[in-house]
Structures are given as C-alpha cells and as structure tokens.
Design brief:
Distance between the termini: 12 Å
Shape: globular
CATH class: Alpha Beta
CATH topology: 2,3-Dihydroxybiphenyl 1,2-Dioxygenase, domain 1
CATH superfamily: 2,3-Dihydroxybiphenyl 1,2-Dioxygenase, domain 1
Largest sheet: 8 strands, mixed
Oligomer: single chain
Length: 134
Amino acid sequence: MIGSINHIAIAVPDIRAAMAQWQERVGAEISEIQTLPEHGVHVAFIKAENGKVELLEPIDENSPIAKFLEKNADGGMHHICFDVEDLIASRDKLIAAGGRVLGSDEPRIGAHGKPVIFIHPKDLSGTLIELQQA
C-alpha cells in the first residue's frame, strides 16, 4: 500500500532558527516558508538526495504542532509521510483493517498541493503517519 518516503517532519519552535541551523551546520538547501492555515503550520522543506525533511512551526497555540511542542519544547520528529498510488483505496484498506484516520476521513490538501490523510499513531507503532497521493 505504501510507496516511497516523501518526507520526515520535524516540529520546531522557531522555523527560521531551525532553517539557519540546517543551512549553517550541514549546508542544507531549504525552500521558502509556506503557511498552511488549514493545518495550523508554517513549513519549509530541506532537500535531500532521497527525500525531504519538513520543518513545522505552529501558527498559533491552537495548532496541533503547538500541542506537540508543549511535550517536546526543543522540537523533534513529528511524522513520516509516504506516497501512495491511490489515497482513497489506501484509506479504505486502512479503515477496513481497523485503522483510524485522524480528523475527517476525507483527504485535505497538504504542503505539496496534493491530498493527504494522517493515520492515528496508536495504529502504527506509536508513530504518526501521513499518506500522500503520489
């Protein structure tokens, strides 16, 4: 059902500071910051040879990332995103197998302009998983 890893997301309290660390310490190539109000985050992507690292900063205290940072003040890995060939079929297979989609079962548009869903962490070894239409 899952394809390649699209990105690994890291929650950060200050996206500009995190971008500077990645640029200064490892010479990372980083995208411009995007704001995704429907997800409650500011995002920037670090380019890697075989995928991306997504930096996530909460827009405000109501963001799911703000809640994550309450428990992890310095930030940390938030989720892994996999590309899938058919997001709806993948969602339906997940639900039929007893898995849960966070929020609505209907996909939302993610940072890459493609439909995404998130799988409840308790359903996959304690890790939040994002599925993105390839």
